[in-house]
Amino acid sequence: MKAKTVFVCNECGYESAKWMGKCPACNSWNTFFEEKISTKTEGGKKEKKVEQVPKPLNTFVGKDAKRTSTGYQELDRVLGGGLVKGSLVLVGGEPGIGKSTLILQICNKIKGEGKVLYVSGEESAEQIKLRADRLNIQNEDILFLGETDIDIIDEQIESIMPKLVIIDSMQTMYSDEISSAPGSVSQVREITARIMKICKSRQITTIIIGHVTKDGNIAGPRVLEHMVDTVLYIEGERYFSYRIVRSVKNRFGSTNEIGMFEMQEEGMVEITNPSSILISERDDNPSGSIVVATIEGTRPLLVELQALVTQSVFGLPRRTANGIDYNRLTLLVAVMEKRAGLGLGNQDVYLNVVGGMKVNEPALDLGIILATASSYKNVSIPKGIIAMGEVGLTGEVRTINMIEKRIKEAEKLGFKKCIIPENNKKLLKETYKLDIIGVKNINEAMKAIGLK
Ligand code: TYD
Ligand code: MG
Questions:
Q1: Ligand minimally distant from the alpha carbon of residue 118
Q2: Residue 412: which CATH number?
Q3: How far apart are the C-alpha atoms of 399 and 119, rounded to whole Å?
Q4: Domain span including residue 12
Q5: Which residues contact residue 45 at a Cβ distance below 8 angstroms, ignoring those fewer than 6 apart?
Q6: Which terminal Cβ of the chain has fewer Cβ within 10 Å, N or C?
Q7: 91, 101, 103, best to mutate for ligand 1 pocket (most atoms within 8 Å of CB)
Q8: Within 13 Å, how many C-alpha atoms sit on residue 425's CB side?
Q9: What is the pLDDT of residues 275-292, one digit of tens each?
Q10: What is the pLDDT of residues 107-121, one digit of tens each?
Q11: How far apart are CA 448 and CA 439, in angstroms?
């Protein structure tokens, strides 16, 4: 009998009976791979044992109480207060971003009794040992297992019963039950399901490391997210030392919380006051630079925006956005032309967020506009000024959320003047040490800092 096969999209897990060049679900090209469907025919219907009977919900012990600190404040906050016992955490990121490094550091720092089992299908014991030496980790409680067969891993976990299991990485593991190659959607799905069973039934906390595809998603992402409790991403520019750990899903805490680390010679070092490092320490004050306040999760963060406006050499002006949305920049450039009369039609506009941060928040609009206007007019924005506000198509400055938190952060870092939306100012309850200026539109904002 011919084995049944199905074609699966490696990006999103879409299944089709025939091969297709383009996936109808996620529109990616050349992502279909043939996979055999495992059909269990022998035995027929299996008898199922009833192990669990329904019980009243309030007789269960609340799981939230059992949290373990990772040893890093920055990471604990992202997790919602530490690792929850028995939870399954997926950590994604580009190759070389520092996933294995950070997780090995956690293995060393994690509190609580018991061993840590580090399963790697990526690197040999020697390579991990070299990394551990570099990180200055000498810990008898960390056990290493170089294995990719999930059945063997399962047995080892059962005999060791560690407090924490690391799977590095999900894409290198395989199960005999699935005939397709490791890393394919059906393997990854099976592996995750198996690991989930292993860790949930024994209440063992597990961290799975996953690689991301070219658009920054964990391979087979949508099919995995519902299985795990928490999904974290490590972001950052490869040739830039700052790393951001972001939670995109968390059953035990709020999402969009971030933690900041710096990749140094001796591993990842947490940064507990990121605002101070994201603002460049410079004595001179060139045009085109302004500090804005953004919110990441629940935390305010001050970042510096830099704009450069120069005469276009070719007919078509260029717009380049680093760290902010390109379409937002083009929209704001159009607003500036129409509502503030800036002649940007024959100018190239480059915008950059200092420190390799990616910030996509409308509250940055006003800062983007002021930085661009400052570079265009070649007039510096005085130091000690911070600006925030969403800008609409008519050039109006609209209200933003969590204004008090942002102002307080600016106050803490010694800023003197704060440009905010007029409607936000009206609602402020507290008084602040810094000078607060409410503006209704971008022209008022430009006047307030001497750009008009
Ligand atoms: P790694 O954790 O192996 O990345 P991933 O598991 O996400 O693929 O990190 C690899 C990079 O980190 C590598 O380019 C070297 C750098 N690194 C340091 O800068 N300092 C260190 O202490 C370590 C261990 C790595
Ligand atoms: Mg690695």
A1: 2
A2: 3.30.230.10
A3: 49
A4: 4-37
A5: none
A6: N
A7: 101
A8: 16
A9: 777 776 667 788 999 999
A10: 999 887 889 999 999
A11: 8
